[in-house]
Every structure is written in C-alpha cells, then in structure tokens.
Design a protein that fits this description.
Number of helices: 1
Low-confidence stretches: 30-37
Number of domains: 2
Structural class: alpha+beta
Order of helices and strands: HEEEEEEEEEEE
Mean pLDDT: 84
Oligomer: single chain
Distance between the termini: 83 Å
CATH superfamily of the largest domain: Lipopolysaccharide (LPS) transport protein A like domain
Number of strands: 11
Largest sheet: 6 strands, antiparallel, barrel
Shape: flat
Strand content: over 45%
C-alpha cells in the first residue's frame, strides 16, 4: 500500500511540474506577442490629460476629445484612453464616452469601444441617452454607426436593437435589426 501511495504521489508531482512548465511557456508566448505588437508600431509620444481637436482638410474642427491619455504611434494611429467626445456636427449633437478609443492611421474614423455611453437627442429634439459596446464615428460619411446591441432611452421612450446608424448632425437615427420599442405617452 505504501508503494502505491508513493507512485501516486510521484505521478501527481510530475503532473504538477508539467502544468507549471506549460504555463511558463504560454506566458512567454504572450509576452513575445505583446512585444511584437509594441515594436511593430511604437509610440512616438504620449499626452496625459489631453484636450485634442481634430480638424478636417480645410481646418474646420471634426471633433473634440478630452482623454486621460492620448498616444500617437509611428504609423500615425492614435490610441485614446477614456475619451469623451464632443463637437460632432454643426449642432454639437452628440456626446460620447468610452474606456477606449482609437483613430486609425487613415484618420477618417474614430472607433470607441468597451462600453460606449451615448448622449444626444431624438430627431424631435428630446434628450436621449444610451449605450453600445462599440461605436464608429465615420467622419467622411458624417455618421455614427454600430453593429452591436444598442439601447437608447429618454422622454418616455426606450429602443433596443442590433446595429445603429445616425447622422452626425442628429437629424436621423435608425436602429437596424431586431428593434424593440417601448413608448409611454407622457400625457
């Protein structure tokens, strides 16, 4: 019986050593992958507590971002931590915030992700607020769009759906699929 326990204990120790060894290999792979991404597009500079106004080709403001950290990479991609976006459209119709933002090197879009909060107004002018997991501000097309689940609410209305399309000026707003609407007449 003692011999059976020793063999079992030896097998358990050997198995544990293999698990620890495999875990260290996986960790090294993750570290190497992270280093590869960082060196492929290194940061050129970083600004903490940034207020950034992005302008179009004519010098007119496209949007304003206030962020905890703004990082410009060698590829011209801009990574944004905790962005709060204002100044969209002629009416400053939308206020957007998210944990993460990014302006790709092409600079025609602003991508917000990891839980986007939306503040704006319904096409009739009443205030709305909402959320989605990811939102793209397409500057050239002058629209906000999402392919994710979206919830919008305010002034006795609640809309839920998959996907959203809205113009930057706040005149059109459309949920695209599996739309559910609840309306409570305030009268």
């Amino acid at each position: 019986m003692k011999r059976g326990r020793r063999e079992w204990l030896l097998a358990l120790l050997l198995g544990g050593a293999v698990v620890v060894w495999l875990g260290s290999l996986i960790g090294q792979g993750e570290q190497q992958r992270s280093e590869t991404i960082t060196t492929a597009d290194p940061a050129r500079y970083e600004v903490l507590g940034a207020d950034w106004t992005r302008t179009d080709a004519e010098g007119a403001p496209s949007f304003r971002v206030r962020a905890e950290r703004l990082t410009m990479h060698a590829s011209e991609r801009v990574a944004i931590e905790a962005p709060r976006v204002r100044g969209l459209g002629e009416n400053d119709s939308w206020s957007l915030s998210a944990p993460i933002g990014e302006v790709p090197a092409d600079s025609r879009t602003l991508r917000l992700s990891d839980g986007v909060r939306i503040e704006g107004s319904w096409p009739d002018g009443a205030a709305l607020e909402g959320e989605t997991r990811e939102l793209i501000v397409a500057l050239k097309e002058r629209e906000l769009r999402s392919e994710e689940a979206v919830t919008l609410r305010g002034d006795g209305r609640r809309m839920q759906g998959i996907g959203m399309l809205a113009d930057i000026d706040g005149e059109r707003l459309r949920l695209l699929d599996r739309v559910r609407v609840q309306y409570d007449d305030p009268r």
